[in-house]
């Protein structure tokens, strides 16, 4: 097997993983659960949490799974009291109703303190749990589950090199050396059994869609689209199923999402539109798996040029992956798929992330609506010309430009957004 094919499979295994709830509060819950693992008593006297700007921004309004409440206090309490540290991003997926009184009592007791950490990291969490005379602190950076140090009673239990702020992993740096054509070739040529695991992304995220269409979550955007639709067009089906999954995830459903690049909404945006197109087109399971692989790996490739967290709403870049997968399912070739990415680059790219919450479903709707427009034009051979804005003749140059926008152009946007959020009257 070609070396880049092996690395692409590694990227899929690393970048496409199950996660229950918004990954920012879940990272805090995970840190708290690991703290509790090293404490002899489950009695919690105090929790101190320090997080980077983007963690704070993304945790203020989003529901913590199983609790029907938002915020890092409830996430930390749930993790410390009932979290499974071995489950990583599914750390609080098993909360029971009988657990809620204890979790909420702790969260609202004043014993759980949350503040901004004085760090430059895009993603940083430290959690200290105190129980009697014992205390444990867990330090996380660069990735939602990347623990780089654990300290108990001033004794280091575990330590590895702390990631440098804004550092990119070896795999992310490798993805930056690739071209979109290599990803297309991989998805077309790799033996099916090597990527069969990608079907799980559809299983998990479509289950979230059905949960969002069946029960009330957030703003019920998916359900309202069903009620308002005159007929079940392909565009409406894509919007309805994708948005409903985001409704459920951001509204506190305990079902896991299959994430992409550390985000459940990105995983949903890269998965559900592809599944809908496959369903409506009566595509074979092999075509669905190859389309999902193409979508998710394209989303990972584009995100390799973006910070792990930023003011750039990456639901849009994930939906670019879906546009590529949809083009393939509808008979498009590499050139068609490239045009679809360019069309989206000329559309809604640059939508800001103003924190996680029920309104994320609306941003997902905007992203997959752009995906549908970009894909439809590309299938007709129409592409935004390279004289326009971020669109370049070369698709890879276009993708790198999007990365530059997210990394440099929106750098000063995050502090402004958080300041507005924290100082509302």
TrEMBL record:
InterPro entries: Ser_deHydtase-like_asu (IPR005130), UPF0597 (IPR021144). GO terms for biological process: L-cysteine catabolic process to pyruvate. GO terms for molecular function: L-cysteine desulfhydrase activity. Residues 170-418 form the Serine dehydratase-like alpha subunit domain. It comes from the Bacteria. Belongs to the UPF0597 family. This is UPF0597 protein FHL05_00765. It comes from Companilactobacillus halodurans.
């Amino acid at each position: 097997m070609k070396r880049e094919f092996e690395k692409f499979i590694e990227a899929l295994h690393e970048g496409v993983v199950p996660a229950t709830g918004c990954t920012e509060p879940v990272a805090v819950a995970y840190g708290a659960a690991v703290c509790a693992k090293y404490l002899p008593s489950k009695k919690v006297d105090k929790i101190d949490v320090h997080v980077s700007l983007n963690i704070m921004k993304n945790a203020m309004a989003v529901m913590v799974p199983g609790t029907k409440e938002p915020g890092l206090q409830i996430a930390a309490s749930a993790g410390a009291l009932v979290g499974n540290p071995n489950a990583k991003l599914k750390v609080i997926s098993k909360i029971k109703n009988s657990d809620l009184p204890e979790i909420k009592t702790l969260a609202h007791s004043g014993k759980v303190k949350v503040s901004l950490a004085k760090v430059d990291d895009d993603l940083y969490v430290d959690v200290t749990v105190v129980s009697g005379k014992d205390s444990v602190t867990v330090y996380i950076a660069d990735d939602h589950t990347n623990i780089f140090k654990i300290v108990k009673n001033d004794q280091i239990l575990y330590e590895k090199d702390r990631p440098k702020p804004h550092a990119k992993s070896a795999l992310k740096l490798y993805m930056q050396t690739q071209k979109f054509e290599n990803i297309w070739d991989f998805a077309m040529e790799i033996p099916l059994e090597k990527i069969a695991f990608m079907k799980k992304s559809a299983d998990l995220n479509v289950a979230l869609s059905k949960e969002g269409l069946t029960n009330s979550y957030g703003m019920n955007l998916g359900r309202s689209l069903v009620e308002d639709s005159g007929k079940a067009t392909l565009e409406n089906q894509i919007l309805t199923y994708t948005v409903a999954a985001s409704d459920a995830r951001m509204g506190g459903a305990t079902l896991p999402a299959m994430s992409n690049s550390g985000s459940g909404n990105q995983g949903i945006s890269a998965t559900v539109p592809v599944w809908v197109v496959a369903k409506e087109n009566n595509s074979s399971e092999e075509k669905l798996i190859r389309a999902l692989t193409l979508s998710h790996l394209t989303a990972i490739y584009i995100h390799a040029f973006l910070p792990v967290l930023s003011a750039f709403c990456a639901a849009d870049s994930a939906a670019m992956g879906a546009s590529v997968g949809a083009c393939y399912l509808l008979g498009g070739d590499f050139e068609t798929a490239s045009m679809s990415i360019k069309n989206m680059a000329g559309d809604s790219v640059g939508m800001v992330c103003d924190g996680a919450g029920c309104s994320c479903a609306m941003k997902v709707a905007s992203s997959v609506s752009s995906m549908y427009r970009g894909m439809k034009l590309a299938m007709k051979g129409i592409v935004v010309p390279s004289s326009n804005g971020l669109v370049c003749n070369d698709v890879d140059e276009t993708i790198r430009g999007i990365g530059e926008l997210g990394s440099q152009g929106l750098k000063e946007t995050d502090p402004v957004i958080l300041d507005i959020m924290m100082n509302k009257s």
